[in-house]
Amino acid sequence: MLSERRLEVLRAIVQDYVGTEEPVGSKALTERHHLGVSPATVRNDMAVLEDEGYIAQPHTSAGRIPTDKGYRLFVDKMAGVKPLSAAERRAIQNFLEGAVDLDDVVARTVRLLAQLTRQVAVVQYPSLTRSSVRHVELLSLAPARLMLVLITDTGRVEQRLIDCPAPVTETVLADLRARLNARVVGRRFADVPPLVQDLPESFEADDRPAVAAVLSTLLETLVERPEERIMLGGAANLTRFNHDFPLTIRPVLEALEEQMVLLKLLGEATDSAMTVRIGHENFHEGLNSTSVVAVGYGSGDEAVAKLGVVGPTRMDYPGTMGAVRAVARYVGQILAES
Amino acid sequence: MLSERRLEVLRAIVQDYVGTEEPVGSKALTERHHLGVSPATVRNDMAVLEDEGYIAQPHTSAGRIPTDKGYRLFVDKMAGVKPLSAAERRAIQNFLEGAVDLDDVVARTVRLLAQLTRQVAVVQYPSLTRSSVRHVELLSLAPARLMLVLITDTGRVEQRLIDCPAPVTETVLADLRARLNARVVGRRFADVPPLVQDLPESFEADDRPAVAAVLSTLLETLVERPEERIMLGGAANLTRFNHDFPLTIRPVLEALEEQMVLLKLLGEATDSAMTVRIGHENFHEGLNSTSVVAVGYGSGDEAVAKLGVVGPTRMDYPGTMGAVRAVARYVGQILAES
DNA sequence: AACTGGCACTCGAAACCGCGGAGTGCCAGG
DNA sequence: CCTGGCACTCCGCGGTTTCGAGTGCCAGTT
To answer: Distance between CA atoms of B194 and B214, rounded to whole angstroms?
Structure first.
């Protein structure tokens, strides 16, 4: 176990390094923080911290920088979540309230997060699988061609084209529309399948194939396509750090273009606890010197999607966590209102 | 006027520079291209080309690189549009045909363009203002709360919430829905306003405010919100060039995050001719060493939106133009089919 | 035992230097 | 009008030097 002062030294190192982006030495430490001990003592502490793997030297006789393990200890034991200022909160609220539809909410959220944290922001669209049906609409575009429009309680709209095996009359369509809505409105997506299974049987034999086609498309949309959409922004912030590396920015940009990677980045945890993944804790090569701060958000009590930021491991964790949490809350509010 | 051979020299310089990314000298030129003259002669030609402003030296006694003006002459007079190989065409077709909805079409198009050109791809969603109405749907979410869903012939779907001043009965709603569709389906957006102006008058006085609310939201969606959405991809390609400059990648990334800038980049020309804007021809600072190749695409004869790529001025213009044009065509086809 | 001042040592970053070579401009001759 | 030759320029590269921040260790103090 590390003594109290050693922890204090680690904290000081993290803070200084985050600020200056340069390895921090014993002398600078004692000057900028009043630790009440001499540089020599700090050096001894540093040697211990290094043995334990919390800090490292880029090369002999340079200052120390925190390791992933060091950052981990920092966020677990020492870093609070810095709340935002009142002004910031108001700005968030105002900015998000101007949104006209779901796309706009997500777009604004991304911008907001990127600006607030000065890092790359990632926002997942409210997931289909965790939300519920507000309305199902069926439109006839041509005699044997329908469009299915699905509206969720989070304001998301999905549409699908359906080619029917046979023409469908308006009356049948209206009938189907009414029954469908009666059964599924208000239901969670996952609960829908059993509720509509027997629907075709209540129609004339001639119409059953068409009804079946509609249902299969509906179920496909609801369940079988967990393809989640994601929006990201603030990529320009990648250039703020990384003075040394087009070398390191490259794989990050590549990773950020992969929807799958982004989804995994945000994590699959369904509860709304904030997760911080640091450096090598990220499974993905090329994200080994980045950290991800993510949290769920939702219109109600439960999270329907996640959002977060990815930045260099040397980030201001308390500040970033504060911003992420605050934005998630406000987005949740906005979604609940619409 | 430049002699035939001087043009040939310019072409050779452009091609070599695009390939090697290094200033090209007279000797290398005569070796790689059989110009039939000696290096000394080429040097004289180069001197002339430099006087005319088509090429420049990074510093005395270095090779030459093309200026923006040089590239301009190159694409105007010398560069054809390199057609894609049959294999590439097939790949495009296959890839785009897998799309399930408009979002997916756009997403796939962006990927495709980025991969094909190895540059940053920009695709504008089919514009609202230039497309026509396929269907208007009205849903009642609560007694005095409606949702308007608008489906365009390009498959785009817009939805809006409407708060009505008074509750609306289902019959009135059905009536309104039917009349609305009868009047506007198949119409271009711009033509809609006069067609619905007198609609409120045909309803009971009690319902007119609600009808008016619906109409105003509809018109707002059709006309007053020319906010276009844009998707981009392939940002990682920015790192392929620019070995020298995180300095130059920064402003580009920033510019690419501004929807407005992107829209202007694609240009406002409504016809489907391809535009190439080179270096300083771009109004925007920070895009001064990038070129933009853009072209309109559409489901029919007329362009409903644009797409293109942005890359370094030293790009393979014929190849890029070929890819952009081909992708635009196939996307047009796909949209027409859906 | 814990802390401190002192000291020799290490090693990267920056400055400096010299050189090779690609490329140029110019000129005189075909 | 083209060409070979020639002197010149300057960048890029590798090696050396210097400088200084920072370290580890030790002996001395509290």
So the answer is: 15
Looking at residue A25, its amino acid is: G
Write the DSSP assignment of A89-106 as a string of letters. HHHHHHHHHT--SHHHHH
Q: Which of A29, A3, A8, A5 is nearest to A17 (CA)?
A: A29
A10 touches strand D (CB under 7 A): no
Local confidence band at A307 (pLDDT 50, 70, 90 cut-offs): very high
CA A34 to chain centre: 38
Sheet holding B157-163, edge to edge: B133-142, B145-152, B157-163
β-pairing verdict for A145-152 and A290-297:
unpaired
| Tokens 């050109």, located at residue | B117
Residues in B closer than 8 angstroms to A149, CB to CB, are 137, 149, 151, 157
Q: Which two tokens stand for residue A165?
A: 């095996």
Q: In DSSP terms, which residues pair with A162 in a beta bridge?
A: A146
Compare A184 and B140 and report the one with higher pLDDT: A184
Q: What is the pLDDT of residue B148?
A: 87
Q: What residues of chain A lie within 8 A of the CB of B338, using their CB?
A: 161
Kindly determine whether residue B147 and residue A141, on different chains, have CB atoms separated by under 8 Å.
no
| Stretches in chain B below the pLDDT threshold 50 | none
Pairing state between β A157-163 and A305-312: unpaired
In angstroms, what is the C-alpha Rg of chain A? Answer: 26
Per the CB < 8 A criterion, the answer to whether B325 and B338 are in contact is no
Do the strands B145-152 and A157-163 form a parallel or antiparallel pair, or are they unpaired? unpaired
Q: Within 10 Å of residue A46's Cβ, how many Cβ atoms?
A: 24
- Residue pair B247/B174 in contact (Cβ under 8 Å)? The answer is no
Q: Across all residues in chain A, what is the average pLDDT?
A: 88
| Beta carbons of B236 and A253 less than 8 Å apart | yes
Q: Specify the pTM.
A: 0.85
Percent of chain B with pLDDT over 70: 95
Reading the block at residue B76, the tokens are 């105007």
Distance from CA of B24 to the nearest CA of A (A): 25
DSSP character string of B279-316: GGGSSSTT-TTEEEEEEEE-SSSS-SEEEEEEEESSS-
Whether any strand D atom is under 7 angstroms from the Cβ of A29: the reply reads no
Distance (Å, rounded) from C-alpha A209 to C-alpha A211?
A: 5
